[in-house]
Amino acid sequence: MIELRDVVRSYPGEPPIHALDGVSLRIDRGELLAIIGPSGSGKSTLLNVMGTLDRPTDGSLLIDGVDTRSLSERRLCALRANHLGFVFQSFHLIESARVIENVANGLIYQGVARNERLRRAARALEQVGLGDRTTTKPSKLSGGQRQRVAIARALVSEPSLILADEPTGNLDSGTSDEVLNLLTDLNREHGATIAIITHDEDVANRLPRRVQVLDGKIVGTTTTEQVAR
Amino acid sequence: MNRPFSRSRSTDDSPGRSRLRTADRFRTGLGGLGSRPARTLLTALGIAIGIASMVAVVGISSSSKADLLAELDELGTNLLQVRPGQSIFGDESLLPIDAQSMLAAVATVDSTAGVTSIRADVTRNVHDDDPYGLGVIATDGDIHSVLQLELEQGRAIDRRTQELPVAVLGSVAAERLAIDTLDGGPTVAIAGRSFQVIGILRSHPLHPDLDRSVFVGHRFAEVQMGMKPNHTSVYVRARPDRIDVTRPILARTANPAAPNEVQVSRPSDALEAQAKVDQNLQNLLLALGGVALLVGGVGIANIMVISVIERRSEIGLRRALGARKGHIRSQFVIEASALAALGGTIGVGFGIAATYVYASSQNWTVDIPAPALAAGIGAALVIGAVAGLYPAAKAANLDPADAVRPHS
Ligand SMILES: Nc1ncnc2c1ncn2[C@@H]1O[C@H](COP(=O)(O)OP(=O)(O)O)[C@@H](O)[C@H]1O
Ligand SMILES: [Mg+2]
């Protein structure tokens, strides 16, 4: 459903930084995969390119076989609003807004009416186990709860692809497991395609497929079957 | 789960849309304000001061003018003054003896009063030769009713006393002559003769020249002082609704032989001109209020730029959620406009309050034109929108990939 072909993303400088240096990667519908690599290896850049927040300097990104280079800015926004969900390491919650409003914002740029948004947001919060915290302000929540709010915001729009950039990076191992379980459940029970970026081997090892990134290049792919063997 | 692009459709088919409902545009725009109430209020204050000063200036000047116009109405804009002008040879001309009676006969004229100025020095007593710069006016008494002159003390010259050596002082004349009471029978000297002061007038806003005059009997001046009986000024009270048709025929009526030697004027015009001078002052103050508004607008732009920097990650998030540049731009423009509109509303409130306080300290009736209030809030909105344009463009043009990254 999403494919990168020889993607290069470089930042000008002396010398120029090649954050992505010829990455080719294919993710199929319903997959759950980890993108793993050390800090600075280009994982976030890769995720931003996959999420159309960033454009490749060279190479192409195909979504459902359509080359995104042919899409206007406006249609990329539409794509993000309707088909992509993001989860970030630092949650990106609006602190002044209640939990349910934060989740409902996942639908706001689809033009969904407010009542409908709130209804679906309540359901999404139910799904992540926060059905009783809808009117709380995010600042009153623990890190694990905050990340679950962010996940609810990503899944409320029922996206085709969820991109999570170090979703457990700011969490201790207990809450980290909670969040990971939530994402794997989403994949198993709802068939969501999910890419999780991490630099944590333990997190990666719980996912069926792992893509290893180093210095802007993919240096290896393993699947659980291979590991088991 | 739906698919972004179905293979059966061409790539021109929309994968859904990115759109923000109008209500949500406002909701996102206003959301930023409520979360920082103290900053919101402080920023709005700049605009509030500008708008308040403009509303107060308009309100106060309009209240003062309302009073001036009410005063004018009371004094009568229907009063005309007929005086001799100059002959074509440059000599001072005279009004005909029967000018007043001719004018009184005009159908649209309600009443008339004729007076004659006398060139004579007025002093405190006959031995004093230090003149006080006062005028002397001879009257038979009808001037009091026609001009609505009011007495502070004593009585006026009338048909009977106009034959006697008596005088009535205008308010300024009384002050200069240091006569503030009729007790003890004060006298003044005019052209070397002693006159008994029988009355002192109140000041009259429409006739400052009369305030500086001493009135004597017309008959006495004519008989005893050799004054020419021709009037030097005939006051004409016209029917209020016919003032426009009356004015043009007065010169001809007063002096049919030489109408061009007659001057007709309207004393209330002078007061009205005074109101026009106030207009200049008002414009100046309005300009100052405008400068305050400009400063307030710069303040808003400033705080919005800071807000955009602080809310970088929110902007990144919104782009990730599918917001278009235009959605981000409108969010910040609306926020800036709302900030200014809040300031405008507070300012209008302060402006009204200031007008009330000042007007009541002056005993004026409060008059604040509604368009000024609407203009105040409208101006604030426009200033806010303009002030928000640059920060909003900055927000919209943030690179989304950069904005979602933690710090930097
Ligand atoms: N906006 C940028 N300008 C210049 N260099 C950047 C920018 N963003 C990322 N980089 C560089 O690209 C490389 C990859 O960064 P990133 O994708 O964030 O790695 P990771 O997420 O794996 O830590 C790093 O060397 C980083 O310094
Ligand atoms: Mg990263």
Helix content of chain B: 40-55%
Outline of chain B, from the CA principal axes? elongated
> Residue-averaged pLDDT of chain A, rounded?
92
Q: Which structural class do you get from the secondary structure elements of chain B?
A: alpha+beta
Order of helices and strands of chain B: HHEHEEEHEEHEEHEHEHEHHHHH
Defining traits:
heterodimer, A: alpha/beta, Rossmann fold, 6-stranded mixed sheet, 4-stranded antiparallel sheet, 8 helices, 28% strand, B: 408 residues, alpha+beta, 11-stranded mixed sheet, 13 helices, elongated, binds adenosine-5'-diphosphate, binds magnesium ion
Overview of this protein structure:
The complex is a heterodimer of chains A (229) and B (408). Chain A is of the alpha/beta class and 229 residues long. Chain A has a single domain (2-228), classed as P-loop containing nucleotide triphosphate hydrolases (Rossmann fold, 3-Layer(aba) Sandwich), CATH 3.40.50. Chain A is 37% helix and 28% strand. Chain A contains eight helices and ten strands. Chain A has helices at 43-50, 73-83, 99-108, 114-127, 143-155, 173-190, 201-205, 224-228, and strands spanning 2-11, 17-27, 32-36, 58-63, 66-67, 84-88, 161-165, 193-198, 209-214, 217-223. In chain A, strands 6-7-8-3-9-10 form a six-stranded mixed β-sheet, with helices on both faces. A four-stranded antiparallel β-sheet of chain A has the order 2-1-4-5, covered by helices on one side. In chain A, strand 9 and strand 10 (217-223) form a beta hairpin. With 408 residues, chain B is α+β, with helices and mostly antiparallel strands. Chain B has two domains: 19-71 and 273-404, no CATH class; 78-266, no CATH class. In chain B, 52% of the residues lie in helices and 14% in strands. Chain B has 13 helices and eleven strands. In chain B, strands 1, 2, 3, 4, 5, 6, 7, 8, 9, 10 and 11 form an eleven-stranded mixed β-sheet that branches. In chain B, a hairpin with a 2-residue loop joins strand 7 and strand 8 (193-201). In chain B, helix 2 (37-75) packs across helix 11 (325-361). The longest helix of chain B has 43 residues, at 268-310. Chain B is elongated and about 110 Å long. Chain B starts with 21 loop residues before the first helix and ends with a helix. Residues 6-14 of chain B have low confidence and may be disordered. The structure holds adenosine-5'-diphosphate (ADP) and magnesium ion. Adenosine-5'-diphosphate (ADP) binds next to strand 2 and helix 1 of chain A.
